[in-house]
Amino acid sequence: MSSLPDASVLPPRLSPRSFDRWNGLVTAGEDADGREVLAPFTGEAFGSVPTSTPADVDRAVGDARDAHERWADRDVEARAAVFERFHDLILDRREELLDVMQLESGKSRGDAYEEVMDVAMTARYYATRAGDQLASERRRGALPFLSTARVHHDPVGVVGIIAPWNYPLTLAVGDAIPALLAGNAVVLKPAGETPYTALATVELLREAGLPHDAFHVVAGEGKRLGDPLIERVDYVSFTGSTAVGRQIAAKAGEELVDASLELGGKNPIYVRPDVDVDTAVERTIGACFTNAGQLCISAERVYVHEDVYDAFARRFVDAVGDLTLDSNYGYGVDVGSLVSESQLERVKRHVADARERGATVEVGGETRPDVGPYFYAPTVLTDLPADATAACEETFGPVVGMESVANDAEAVAEANDTEYGLHACILSGDVKRARAIAQDVDAGTVAINDGYMTAWAAHDAPMGGRNDSGLGRRHGPEGIERFTESKTVTTSRALPFSPVSGPTALEAKVLATGLKLWRRIPFLR
Description:
Mean pLDDT: 95
Radius of gyration: 26 Å
Strand content: 15-25%
Shape: globular
CATH superfamily of the largest domain: Aldehyde Dehydrogenase, Chain A, domain 1
CATH class of the largest domain: Alpha Beta
Number of domains: 3
Distance between the termini: 67 Å
Strand order of the largest sheet: 12-13-14-11-10-15-16
Number of strands: 18
């Protein structure tokens, strides 16, 4: 293992000793190799996290399975109390968490703050609702008055979470909260770029009262640890690219392990002619450039009704050009860094391909090494050919294509002309009309008069993708039920005939007559 980070390269609230403590939370051997973690603001390594092996994964899952049984024995109110305390802790310690997130992801402080608020809200939502959502349900029995049926929701056991780097707090811990509240234990593999945000948060969960073995972290390459994790856990939650999601789905299918996958998106935003243009520009900026475009539900395709296209395009391009980029740990910066050199190269390739195919760069289209090594100027493309990479593949950076459409029908056709189906936005002064349009958009969520925040922050409503954008849903009752197995328990008070010999002729006639009457009695249907 390498030495502790140099204090001079860390934000002032972070101590080098914190990283040593967090490294101790990784399930890895004492002689484990270390993987350097880079600070996107500078491109330099600031720390080294222990790397786990497949044997470490086996040990983590085994310990988690033992802990699950003890954790699941606690009633749901006792489990919820842990997350009520966690809610307060994460808000109280937010400044340190913000520093960690910025240090290893390069995002702006405002974007990092969204994650703290989101995880706190997720903890509060499930802590207050899990009791009802996990409660046994009475269902109709086979025959009225003669039998009953109840459905119970049992934890699956050990949940494996494979988290991405773009939202290292929300997407690592946000799914763990309902999994744990349902009575499961969790083994998390955070992204190699952003392990310390997850580790710092696990420390807070333990301080809130979560049993130590109920949440394990393994660190290392997904190619090395992914299969061993899927082979050992009882459920897999993955957020990431569609290409990797297909591999995980195939492996989960091979192991007969259930999985939820939130994958890529090429999300559209439609600006209708009845909007206030200035408001529409502001909302579109937020939809496209939050977290430097490294957001699965950000918009990368902007369709503007031809009646307002000229006015909107002029103001939008000017506003994008005015966005501030900076590599500091204070509030007030509009756009932060891309996470890595490989992500920067991806964005550069997409823009270069668009230029070669005849697209016009209205603003941006260049790196910003004067700000930091991985910064890229927010970019708007027009005249973007349909076969350009930036038109059909997820860029995952601060790049959007903009074009005009003649009417609502054309906007919907363009929005649906993709293999993805994660999220969409509609900006309109006529909410009733926008809701009608939303019914025709093939996406898991549609936000009206907002980029994404109202959809993501609606924790009581499910969120997830269609088509190549994934399987399953997070948030809402669906977000906790996915981490459970249903068990049906029936009770017979009396049977109308012997289950061995079957009914007599008279009993068969009586039963048939009863069934016909049953259909005609409303309260028994």
